[in-house]
Amino acid sequence: MPLDLGLAVPLFLLCAAVIGVGGVAMTSVADCLADRTGLGEALVGGVLLGVSTSLSGTVTSISAAYEGHAALAVANGVGGIAVQTVFLAVGDLLYRRANLEHAAASVTALVQLGLLLLLLGLAMAAATAPEVAVLGLHPINVVLVGGYILGVRLTRLVQDQPMWYPRRTAELRVDRPEADPFPATRTPALVLRYLALAVVLGFAGWGIAKTGYAIVQETGLSQSFVGAAFTATTTSLPELVITLAAVRRGALQLAVSGIVGGNTFDVLFLVLSDAGYRAGSIYHAVGPMELFLIAWAVVMNAVLLLGLLHREQRGVGRIGWESVTLIGVYLAGLLVQVWGAAGG
C-alpha cells in the first residue's frame, strides 16, 4: 500500500535513527575484533566495517531496482560514495591535533582508493558504451566483482608485506592493540553481536528505500536527486557515526579505511541493482544526472587520494586542503543536483 507523506517522513526519520544508533554500537565491536584477530584497523575497517555498514544502502538500492526505479537505485549507491567521502572532512574538523589524512596515512588506504577509482571507471564505461546484456545483466558485473575480490587480496598482501611506508612523524598514529573493551565476551559472541547489528541496519535500509520512494512520489522530486541527497545520506549515517566515533577513540586508520572500504563496496551496489532490475541492464537505464554522480564520486576520491599522498600536517583552520576541497566539491555537486531537479 502506498505511503502518504505524513507517514513516510516519520518512518524515514525512524529508520535514520535506527541506523545511527546501530552504527555507534558497531564501532567499538569492530575495533575490538581488529585487535583480537590481528587483522588491524585498516583491513577490518576497509572490508568488515566497510561491507557491514553498507548493508542498509545495499538493501535500499536492490529494493529500488527491483521495483523498477533505476535512477533511485544508482543515485543511492553512487551518491552514498560522495557523501561518505565528505564525512572524512567532518572527521578532520573533529581531530584537532593534525590533519586527519596526515595522521592516518597507510598504504592499505592508498590501495583501496586506487581500487575504488578503477571500479568507478569501469562502471562509467559500462554506462556509456554501446548496450550489451546477457540475460538482462551487463558483463561488466563479473569484472567488478572479480576486481573487488582481487583488490581485497591485494590490500591484505600490502598490509602483511608492504613495499611502501608512510614517513614517520610525531603526529602519525600507528595501529596498536588497545585495552579490550569486552573482556568478558568471547570472540564468537562478539562476532554474533556484530552480525546482529548488521541485520538491523539491513532492515532499516529496506525502510529507507520504501519511504524514500514515497517521498519521491509525493513531492515530485526526481529519483536521482532524492537518491543522492536523501536516501544516500541517510543510509550513510552508520559511516558518519563510526567515523566520528573512531576519530574520538584515536582509531584513525579504522576511520579512514572504513570510509574508503565502504565506498569501494558501494560500487557493487550497481552489480546487485543490475541483478534486481527486471527491465534489462540498469547501466543502460541511467541518464546524464546518474553519470554526473559517478564523475562526482571519482573527483572527490581523487582529491582524497592526493591528500593522503601529500599528507599536509596542518592547513587552514587546522584541517587539510583536501578537506576544504572535498567540502567545496560536495556542495557544488549538490547545487548541480538541485539545478537538475528544478529542470536546469
Mean pLDDT metric: 81
Integer-rounded radius of gyration? 19 Å
Please give the largest β-sheet. none
Choose one word for the global shape.
Answer: globular
Determine the number of helices (DSSP H or I, runs of at least 4 residues).
14
Stretches where pLDDT falls below 50 for ≥5 residues? none
What would you give as the CATH superfamily?
A: NCX, central ion-binding region
Class from helix and strand fractions: mainly alpha
Total strands: 0
Measured as a percent range, the helix fraction is: over 70%
Second-tier CATH architecture: Up-down Bundle
Q: Using the coordinates above, name the CATH class.
A: Mainly Alpha
User: For the terminal residues, how far apart are their CA atoms?
Assistant: 33 Å
Overall structural domain count: 1
Strand content: under 5%
Task: Spell out the helices and strands N to C.
Answer: HHHHHHHHHHHHHH
CATH topology: A middle domain of Talin 1
Short note summarizing the structure:
By secondary structure, this protein is mostly helical. The protein has a single domain (5-174, 185-341), classed as Up-down Bundle (A middle domain of Talin 1).
Mind explaining what this structure looks like?
The protein is mainly α and 344 residues long. The chain has a single domain (5-174, 185-341), classed as Up-down Bundle (A middle domain of Talin 1), CATH 1.20.1420.30. Helices cover 74% and strands 0% of the residues. It has helices spanning 5-37, 40-52, 55-66, 70-94, 100-103, 107-128, 140-160, 187-219, 223-235, 237-249, 252-266, 269-276, 288-310, 321-341. The longest helix has 33 residues, at 5-37. The radius of gyration is 19 Å and the shape is globular. It starts with a helix and ends with a helix.
